[in-house]
Structures are given as structure tokens and as C-alpha cells.
Amino acid sequence: MTDVREIDRIVTAALDEDAPWGDLTSETLIPGSATATAELVAREPGVLSGVEVFAAAFRLTDPRIVVERLAADGEAFEAGAVLARVQGPARGILTAERVGLNLVQRMSGVATLTATYVAAVAGTGARVVDTRKTTPGLRSLERQAVRDGGGRNHRRSLSDAIMAKDNHLAVLTAGGRDLAAALREARERMPHTAHLEVEVDRLDQLDAVLAGGADTIMLDNFTLDDLRAGVARIGGRAVVEASGGVSLDTVAAIAATGVDVISVGALTHSARALDLGLDVVIEATTDAAAAASTAPATPAPAPEVSP
Asked: Which of 90, 105, 188, 260 satisfies CB 3.0 to 4.6 Å to 34 for a cystine?
């Protein structure tokens, strides 16, 4: 699970965005003593991700709200399933509803799409991984959603690994500089714990990249035949990653070429929000009902007596 401090940071920012000076509607229309029960209900099948993020929206809005988790992150569900139950002050539930739903719907959409890709490559040995094509500010949550869907994470940020892509190589080899020598020099400046990945878009780049000591080689937008040829030429001397042109229609064939990793930007940049709803039932005493329950009963009219 994503660290609770990171969850609270993201959810707090979302709540501040949605109700910067309070929830005018709930504070105006809903009595302060009203309480409610709400259920997180699936409108379609999928894979759950973000139940703790969903719960945090209510906890940070009003700590008196209790969220009962009825399903776990990574769990598959069918349409109609009740995934969580929320109980507590109605104003807080109504205020937190949209933020909680937005985040759990987004994360569950990513997890569900990821699970579909993972199922498509089952039995091949290839790992499905995400990319940095994430929603700004939500990377840690979307990465968790990928894991909940059975996928793996690529580097988290530019600070986590050295990844030389086409533009890096263009600058690095400007003026005819030898690629293998440039990569070896880069390795000498790397921390000993760092990982070096190099992207190539042609088979004839492989020998230089291998000579430069790449730990992972990304074969970008290769045909299936070239992927097979690349895997054979690398021969286990580096991790082989396939990228570009990956979709649900192509991922199984890409995995069958023998690559180790398939990076899929669509997991995060093209996942749609899953259809989840929050069904609220007001069930407890409001100020008006409380007043009515304590008011003296109106006496029944005396029966008329015939003369």
C-alpha cells in the first residue's frame, strides 16, 4: 500500500481543492446532527484499488466517520458488489463523497486495465510494467493501482535510475562520439547502486549498447521479427524491455518474442475511471426529528356526546 503520509498529502490537497471554504450545500441543507450510512457499490465488474485512499477522504473530512472495508485492494469483483460501507455524520460523508469516489474510481480503473494486460501475457514470463506517463500529482497512487492489477512498476522518477532515451543518445553522440565509450564513461560516474537502461530503435545499435554496459535495453517500436532478433542478439547479457505500439491486441504477441519486460503507457494515461457509486441512506435522527420526538403529544379531541 502507498505510505499513509503520501495518501494523506494527496487526499488533503484534493479536499482543499473541492471545498476550499467548506461545503456550502451540506452546511446549508443538512442538519448538523444528521447521520447516514453509505455503501460503495460497483456498477460494473473490475479490480479494486484505493480502498484506503477512499477511506482517507472521509477520515480527513471528519474523524467520526467510520469506513468498513468489505473488499481488499487487488480483489476482483462483479457488478453490484458492495465494496465498503461508510457511517457517520451526514455532512462529512456528503462533503468527502466526490473526492473519495474520484480517487477510488481512477485507481480501480488503472488496476482493472492492468489486470487485463497481465492476463493477456500469462504463461510467457514477460512482466507488464507502467511508465512515467502518469497524472501529475497522482503517480504514487497510480503506481499502486498497477501493482493491485498484477503489474510491476518501472522507475518512479528521473532520480531513481539512468535511462538514456533517443534524445539523450543524440546529444551524447553529437560530433561522432562513440556510443559504447560514452556509455562506459557514464557508468564510471554512476553511483554503484544505480541501474543503466538504454533505449534503441534499431538492431544495429545493440552491439555498442552492450559494449557500453547497459543493464537493461529497451527495444522501442520494434517489429515482432526484430524483437525476436534483438532478444537473440542480447542473449541474456541484459534485461530486454519492449516498448511502443503495445495494446491489448498486440501485447500477447510481443510477450511471445521472449522479452523480459513490456512497458505500457496506456495503463495510466488511457485507463478510464471504473463506474463505482456511493449510495447514501439517511438513517439517524435529525434536529427536527429529535424535536418532534420530545414535543408533548397533541391530545385527541374529546368524543362528541349525543344529547
From this structure: 90
